[in-house]
Every structure is written in C-alpha cells, then in structure tokens.
Amino acid sequence: MRRKLFGLPALFLLATVVGTASLAGLAGASSPSSGNGKFNAATWKPTLDAPLPPMEAPLSFHLSDQPAYWYDNQRTDLEGILHTRSLSAAVAGVPTKVKFEIGEPYTSQTHTVSSIVWPVGAKGVPFIQQGSFAGETEFELSTPGLYVFQCRVHPYMLGAVVNDDPTTPGADLGKKVHWIDGTDMPTSADEILFIVSKFFIVTEPANWQYYSPDHPVVWDPQFPAAPVMTYNADGSPNLIPNLNDYFHQKYHLPQTLNPPTKPDVQGVGEFFVDTQFEKSAGKDKPGSITTYDASTWEMTRKMFLPGINMNFSDSKLALAPTKGRMLDHIGFEVRDLAAFCRKLEAAGVKFDVPYMKEPSGIGRALITDPWGTSIELTEGFNQ
Ligand SMILES: [Cu+2]
After folding, report:
1. Distance 273 CA to ligand 1 centre (A)
2. Strands, E assignment, 76-168
3. For site-directed labelling of 143, which of 130, 305, 354, 365 has its Cα 20 to 30 A away?
4. Measured in angstroms, how far is the CA atom of residue 309 from the centroid of ligand 1?
5. pLDDT at 282 over 80
6. Centroid of ligand 1 to alpha carbon of 90 (angstroms)
7. How many CB atoms lie within 10 A of CB 292?
8. pLDDT at 62 over 60
9. Separation of 285 CA from ligand 1 center, angstroms?
10. What's the structural domain count of the chain?
11. CA of 212 to the centre of ligand 1 (A)
12. What is the pLDDT of residues 131-148, one digit of tens each?
C-alpha cells in the first residue's frame, strides 16, 4: 500500500512527460514483479499494490457481435488473468478516456453505451445516448471506482472499467456506487458483488454453463484471483483478498450440472427457442432459432438466419431492468390473427390483451403460456 502511494508522483510525472498516461510505466515503477518495467502478461500476478494489469489510455472497447466479447478490449493476453475481455483498468488521478467503437467488422448492428453502475459523485454519468448508433463515443473517468456500461438494445452486452484508487490496497470499487434503478449502495453490498460475479460469467465463454446430454459435468467459473477493495455502508474498508476464492465460497462453486431432462408433462405444438448466440459453419456471426416438438420434447429444426447477426431490433418502449432474464416476451407474426385468436379462445386460452387492430393497421394480442412465457401475436409487421 505504501509502495503504491509512493509510486504515484512518478506516475504524474510520466503523464506530464508523455502526454498520455502510459500505465505500463506505472506498473514498472510500483510492481516488483514486473522487474525491468516491461509488462509481461505471462508472468504478471495480481498484488495488493497492482491488483489489475496495467493498461494504456485511452481504454478502448470494440462493441462486437461475438458472443461474450460484446465489449471487447481485445486484450487476449489478459483474458487468462481477468477472465473477461470486457473489463479494463485505469489509475484514478490520471485523466483517462474510455473509447467505445461501434462498427464493422466487429458489429453489423447499432448499439448504445449506457451506464448502469457508477461511483456516487462521478462526473458525466449516467453516460447515455439518445438511441443506438454506429460510430465512436468517449467517456472521461473521474471519481475512483467501478463503472459498468450496457447496451440498451442488447442488455447482455456488458463492459466495465475499474478506475483504481492507487492509494488503497486492491482493485478499489469505490465507497458507494449508484445503480441504474436509482439506489446508492455500498460496494460490499451483496447486490453489487452478485452483479460483479455475473459480469465475469456473462462476458467470458469459458465461464458459461455447458451441459452434456448424458452425464453430469462440473461447472467451475473463474474470476480474477485479485485483491478487491469494497466498502461497508459506514465507509469502513472491506478487503476481499482474492476475488476468485471469495466467489467460490460465496456461491458454492464449483457446481455440478446434471444433464437436462425432458419435462414430465407433454406439451402441445411446436415451440421456438431463441438460440441467438449459437455459431454455425459458414457464418461469421452467430444467430439461430431452434424449434422443438412439444409432444416429444425433441428438437425439430434449426434456422440459421443468413445475413442476420443479432435478431433483435431497437425497442420503441422504455426498457425495464431485465432482472436476470434476457427475454421479456417472444412474438409471432400470425396470418389472419383475428380468426386465430377466436380459435385460441374457443380452446380455453385466456388473453392478457384480447385481439385488437391498431389505427396503423397492425393486429395484436397478448397471451401467457402455461409456463409463464408472455407471447405477443401480431399481424401486419411483415408488410
Ligand atoms: Cu447492442
């Protein structure tokens, strides 16, 4: 901790000399493990003084269509340490810009870069755009702590920056963070640590749950083995010596994933599963729809949508927090919807919103299936 503090003036000097802050230089000045000042990801280990690998400003993220690497800092060399390519680190006190680039070849879609978590008191947050876009946008870090960004069109797209206070031990998440729902929480709050753990699961394919069709498998997600500083509600420090160990204990990891079983109850008809992160041969971007026969629970079809990368469009409605769910409802375009709804009604289906025709000519109805899935039926969107 002391070494880190003493290393700080050298960093400021460096920033003045080279204009942009080269954090690799900082690591050389403050971390004995980096020896001659050259950063080497293969030998680098997190310490209290240097809990996160040094990164050069500006910190840039390419927004991408590749599953998990949605906010890609392209630091493949650090993926084995950080267990994500969607987290970057800065040193608080050094003016650091975060750059977000949206465009080909990384993504064919438009996105937003929207704050969902930020340190209480930070400037320029929430960082929000009017709508999804392609191009570049920049954000300047101020207050130390944790900043998390999300795409509002594709809410699983997550990126984060820790603006680490160099005077405290560990990667400092800051005293209090503001959560997009309007609450301020101390960084030691269960909710914040839960989000942090999920971040590393969502943004690292190796941390996803892969099931075997016929035998149990062990799921053992990995997190940075780094010291992390959080704070209690009264402002007192709460140092987590090793985030990987901490999450393993807290969330009872590793866990066993049993092979999926078919439901005991037979279903009716065919159902569609959104498998939009599935990759397929001959397509550089993921995206598919999988259909099942509900009477046998057997897979019947896969549709790899040629030329389509992500199969969601910008929402015209205000988005609510997804609360752990990726999908609010699914929609089907139905020919002669009015007759179809009469048929459903005769079969005893209850409507949340009965069939109606909007002034625009679009027909609409909303039902909930027996498993609680909200299904919107429409007619006229394909015209
Ligand atoms: Cu997006």
Report:
1. 20
2. 87-91, 97-102, 114-119, 135-140, 145-150, 158-164
3. 130
4. 11
5. no
6. 24
7. 18
8. yes
9. 14
10. 2
11. 30
12. 899 999 999 999 999 999
Q: What are phi and psi of 345, to 5 degrees?
A: -60, -45
Taking only the tens place, the pLDDT of each residue in 263-273 is: 899 888 988 99
Question: Could you tell me the distance, in angstroms and rounded to a whole number, from the CA of residue 111 to the centre of ligand 1?
Answer: 4
CA of 156 to the centre of ligand 1 (A): 8
Å from CA of 348 to ligand 1 middle: 39
Q: How far is the CA of 14 from the centre of ligand 1 (A)?
A: 37
Residue 312 Cα to ligand 1 midpoint, Å, equals 9
For range 338-351, the mean pLDDT? 86
Residue 299 inside a domain? The answer is no
The CATH code of the domain that includes 78 is 2.60.40.420
- Of 257, 279, 295, the last residue of a domain is 257
pLDDT of the residue at 222 = 98
Query: In the 8-state DSSP scheme, what is residue 191?
Result: H
**What proportion of the chain, given as a percentage, has pLDDT over 90?**
54
Helix (H/G/I), strand (E/B), else coil: 18 = helix
Question: Could you tell me the distance, in angstroms and rounded to a whole number, from the CA of residue 197 to the centre of ligand 1?
Answer: 21
Q: What is the whole-number distance in angstroms between the Cα of residue 153 and the centre of ligand 1?
A: 5
**Cβ count within 10 A of residue 166:** 20
Domain that holds residue 349: 328-383
Q: 133 alpha carbon to ligand 1 midpoint, in Å?
A: 9
**Shared-domain flag, residues 348 and 238:** no
Residue 339 has pLDDT above 70, yes or no: yes
pLDDT of residue 316: 42
Å from CA of 69 to ligand 1 middle: 12
Strand order in the sheet with 171-172: 171-172, 228-231, 237-240
Single residue among 229, 257, 285 that ends a domain in this structure: 257
**Tens of pLDDT, residues 29-46:** 344 444 456 789 999 999
Q: CB of 16 within 8 A of CB of 25?
A: no
Q: What is the pLDDT of residue 329?
A: 65
Q: How far does residue 107's CA lie from ligand 1's centre (Å)?
A: 9
Nearest to 160 by CA among 85, 225, 92, 253: 85
Q: Quick check: helix, strand or coil at residue 329?
A: strand
Cα of 115 vs centre of ligand 1, distance in Å, is: 13
Residue 370 has pLDDT above 60, yes or no: yes
